[in-house]
Structures are given as structure tokens and as C-alpha cells.
Amino acid sequence: GVGSLLESSCLLSTNNTSRITTKTESLTATTTHYQTLHHHVKFIIMRVTSYLVVAAIAVVSVVVRAEGEEAPPAEECTCDGEVSAAVTKVKGEMASVEKEVATIKTKLGETEGSLASCTTDLTATSEKATKEQDELQKKIIELTEQKAKLEAEAEKARALQASLEKATADLDSHKKTLEDTKGSLTKELDSHKSKLGEAHGAVEQHKQELEKAKAQLDELNAKHKGQYVNVGQIQEDVMGFFGKLTGKANAEL
Known about the structure:
The chain is mostly helical. It contains 3 helices and no strands.
């Protein structure tokens, strides 16, 4: 993910830096070699100059001696031989110098070619590194934006989690309240069931008493059969009796 991309980008930047460092070191070594050859050429030029000066001095001395002195015998005159020897020595040194200069020119050509190649490689590497660095910078910007988005999403997730935890706590509280209410209602229902059972017993008792009263009424009717009976009074007594029973039952319920 993000970490691996950053790691690969850093590795790419490190490799580019290493390549540039290597090319720079190679260019520095080539430049140093070029400077060494340049100093060597200057030294050779100084040597050639010194040989030319020596040859000129030898020629001048021979000419002066030839003009200022009488001509010696043939066997004693060595001026031409000295001049010839000096010229031969100078020619030999010049040939050696020319050969060495040619070698140095060849080496200088190789060095200049290597220097140009190193410069080209360094320029190409630098341009490539600059391009890769720009791409890396763009990737870093993109990763930074993605990181900000992820942090915002994480913040939303944390807020949602906190809200969910609060809702869970509220639900647990409501659940406990419901359980407490259920327990209370169960107790109250059991109490009502008990009272209902007692009332049912009382109703059964009143039912038995009503049946007993009905039996007494039937017995009374049979006893007074054929006699004058105050029906209104009997109805009033019966209704009063039933009213008392009903009131008592309602009170107990």
C-alpha cells in the first residue's frame, strides 16, 4: 500500500543519487587525469625549450670561437663535430619529445572522449533523476492527499463507533429498565391473579348462597301455596337480599 510505495520511491531516489555520485566521481577522475597530462605536456615543452637553448648556446660558442681565434690545424678543429653532435642530440631529443607528445595527444583524445561521454551520461542521468524526482514529488503529494482522506474517514469511523457504543449502552439501559418493569408487572400480575382467585372463590360462595336462598324461596312458595301472599313484599325482600350479596361481591373484587 502506501508504505511500500513510499519505500520504493525512496529506494529509487537513493539509486538515482548513487548513479549521479558514481558519474561525478568518474568525471572527477577523468578531469584529474586530464590535468595530469596537461602538466606532463608543459614539462615536455620546458625540456624541449631547455634543449633548444643548450643547442643555441653551443652554436653561438662555436661561431664566436671560430671568429675570434686563428684557424687551428685540421686535426685540432672540432667545432663542426661539436655542432653536429649537439644538433644530433637535439634532433634525438626532439624525436623523443614528438613521440611522447603524440602519445600524450592520443591519451588526451581518449581522455576528452571519456570526459565527453561522462558529461553526456551525467547530463542524461541528471535529467532522468530530475524527471524521476518530479514524479516522486507528485506521488508524495498524491499520497499526502490520500493520507488526509484516510485520516478523515478514520475520524468519521471513530465518531460512528463512539455513537454506536453510546447507542449500545442506551440499549442495555433500556433493556435493564424493561426487565425491571417486566419483573414488577409480573409481580403485580401474580398479585392480581391471587386476588382474582380469591374473588372467584367468593363468587362461588355467593353462588352457593344464592342457590340456598333460591331453595328457601321455593320452600317458602310451597309453604304459602294457596294462601294470600304479599308478592310485592317478597320481591322487595329477595331483591334486597340479592343487592346485599352483589355489593359484598363487588367490594371483595
